[in-house]
Every structure is written in C-alpha cells, then in structure tokens.
Amino acid sequence: MKLALDTSAVPNQPAGAGRYVVELARRLPGRGIDTTLITRRGDDARWRQYSPDAHVAPLVPRARVARLAYEVTRLGRSEVARTADVWHGPHYTMPRQGSTPCVVTIHDMTFFTNPEWHERAKVIFFRRAIAYAAQHAQAIISVSEFTARLIDQLLEGHAPVVVAPLGVDLGRFSLDAVGDAEKLRAHGLRTDVDYFLFVGTFEPRKGIDVLLDAFTEVAQENPLVELWLAGQHGWGVDKVEARLSTHVAASRIRRLGFVPDDALAPLLRASRAAVYPSRGEGFGLPVLEALACGVPVVTSRNTVMEEVAGPAAILTAAGSAPDLARAMLELLELSPEQRAHASRVGRDRAETFTWERCVDQHVVAYHRARGE
C-alpha cells in the first residue's frame, strides 16, 4: 500500500498531536506501508531524520495561510496524491481536490462543544474542516472512545470511525531512573526539591488557572514543595501570566518552557506527582506518559483523561481548585509503600497503550478507506 501522510502542520517542537504524527511517520514504514511524508518546503531534513525509511515530499508552503490554501486547491491533485492508494490527514483537514481515498484524524470535538477554549478564527476554520472531512473522507480516525461518541452525537452521516488510542514509548517513559539526576542537572534542573509537575501548552482549557489557585492552599500547608510548569506558550493566558508574577508563592513556581525529549521522562520520575487539570482534551498524552513513569497523577473527572487513566489516577472535578488542592495534599502524605503501589498500578495501566496497537488501528482504517 502506498500512503501519503500529511505532516505539514507539525511545529518544530512537536507536542500532543504533533508527537502523534511523528510516531506514525516513524513506525508506518516498518509495517510494509510505502510511506511518503508531505512536509513544508525546507522542512524535509527534519522528517528524514524522524523517519529514515519514508519518502519525503516538501510540497507545502511554509506560511500557515498559504499552506491551508494550497491544501484546499492543489495538494490533492499533486503527483504524490495521485499515485497514493490512501491519503491521511492527521490533523482534522484533507484536500478538497483529487480522488485519492482519504482518512482524517479527528482528535477532539471541542471546537463544537467548547469554542471558548480556542481562538475564534480557529473555531470557524476547524468546524468547517471537521464537517467537510466527516462527509468526504472514506474513514475517520478518533484517538479515543470519548471523541468517537461525540462524533456520533454531533456529526450526522459521518464516515466510518476507527478508534485508535494513542500510545506511549514504554522504553523511554519507564520506571528506570538510572542517570536521571545527571540529565536533569545537564538541563539546569535541581534534583534536591519536591515539586508537582504540569506538562502542557499554556492555553485556557489546560486549567493552569485552577492549578495556581490550588497551589495557593498547597503552598500554605507545605512550606517547601514547588510547582513546576513545563510546556510551550500558547494563547489566551494573559491572566495566568499576571497570576504567576503576583502569586503568594511565586518564588516556588518555576516556568520551564519546552522540555527536550531527553529531559521529560527524568523530570516526570523526579516529581512528587504529575498534575493535569485540563478541562478537556482529545487524549491527554502527558497523563499516559506520567503513568508509564510510575508517577502518581491527578487529572480531571468526566474527561477523556479519565478514560486514559482508568483507576490509576486521582480524579478531581474539572475547574475545582479546592478539589485539586485536596488531592495534591493527599499525594504529599503518601507513604513509600503507597507510592510504590501507585507506581505499579500506573505502569500496568500505561502498558495497555502502545504505539504498535495505535498503528494497527491506522492500518485498519487505511484498508477500510480502500474498501477492503
């Protein structure tokens, strides 16, 4: 099978959905799929490094508006598209021209259910893109059962849905902490402090405002513990930025920015717990990565993260700072035996999510798109 995989929307520092595309690009050629990666012009070297066994076609303009226009008007008629058996758009969109069977990944439905979590221009664009894909793709991939249910509820007459939960690199995100202290010090990170860790892009839905409110209470109860925030700057966080500078425990809140791949697992393993109070996601990959490292996790009830974590995380009401603070304080009181038990339960849960199984489901979707 010849597959064209559109990687052109993945930023230079992949996170979340970007990491998903990178893992697909790395693994699909090993499944006997003749894979061509569609990249932005000038971005081909990076993708050759990610996936040495794939072909790379640097077709797409670099500027975002030009890239989206090119996808609509020309990409589907390119030679790569015409000679592919299946086209995969892994980020909601697909070409509007051409006849190649298409598979489109819909990560979440929050552009419909919670538009206030996104920039207005993105809401308008992605609502249209998702509606179009639902009607014109030959198959839809959902990264969770949670999102698949919402697709059924909100998109009438959509294409068949294949659920392909994301995975975790169980070798990199492991219980093995040998060498972690050296890696953390190499990145200028302390190894002699207790801290809660948040990993995620800074944007309204991530619940960072709730986390800061919760940490006010936690910091009053415990005079030593810190809060470390890892992730790229997103949008709509002016109020959060202001809170960071005026927080009563500002000296104990550390902004780490984007964390390199080699530091993320050590950073998780050294934390007291991973705290992910997001109001809603498509999957919530940081939760799974923390569980794989054997780290206690606090995340939000009645979200996809509950589906991912199962019984392995403490669940709190989304948006409730008092609920979150109680859970954080509870984790500070865990005995070594209780932490060891939580670690085993988390690791066992994470081992049910692998990239290999995720890719298996993608192959199913590709064959379904071809009518096989």
Task: Characterize the structure shown.
- This protein is an alpha/beta fold and 372 residues long.
- It folds into two domains: 2-167 and 355-369, Glycogen Phosphorylase B (Rossmann fold); 180-350, 3-Layer(aba) Sandwich (Rossmann fold), CATH 3.40.50.
- Helix content is 43%, strand content 16%.
- The chain is built from 16 helices and 13 strands.
- Strands 3-2-1-4-5-6-7 form a seven-stranded parallel sheet, sandwiched between helices.
- Helix 13 (304-309) links the parallel strand 12 and strand 13 (314-316).
- The mean pLDDT is 96.
Order of helices and strands: EHEHEHHEEHHEHEHEHEHEHEHEHEHHH
Shape: globular
Can you name the CATH architecture of the largest domain? 3-Layer(aba) Sandwich
- Give the helix level as a range of percent: 40-55%
Largest sheet: 7 strands, parallel
Count of all domains: 2
SSE layout and pairings?
Blueprint (H helix, E strand, L loop, with lengths): L1 E5 L10 H11 L6 E7 L3 H7 L4 E6 L3 H10 L5 H5 L2 E4 L12 E5 L3 H4 L6 H17 L2 E4 L2 H10 L6 E3 L16 H7 L8 E5 L8 H14 L4 E5 L7 H9 L6 E5 L3 H9 L3 E4 L8 H8 L4 E4 L3 H6 L4 E3 L4 H12 L3 H15 L4 H15 L3
Parallel strand pairs: 1-2, 1-4, 2-3, 4-5, 5-6, 6-7, 8-9, 8-11, 9-10, 11-12, 12-13
Helix pairs in contact: 8-11, 9-14, 12-15
List its traits.
alpha/beta, 2 domains, seven-stranded parallel beta sheet, six-stranded parallel beta sheet, 16 helices, 13 strands, 16% strand
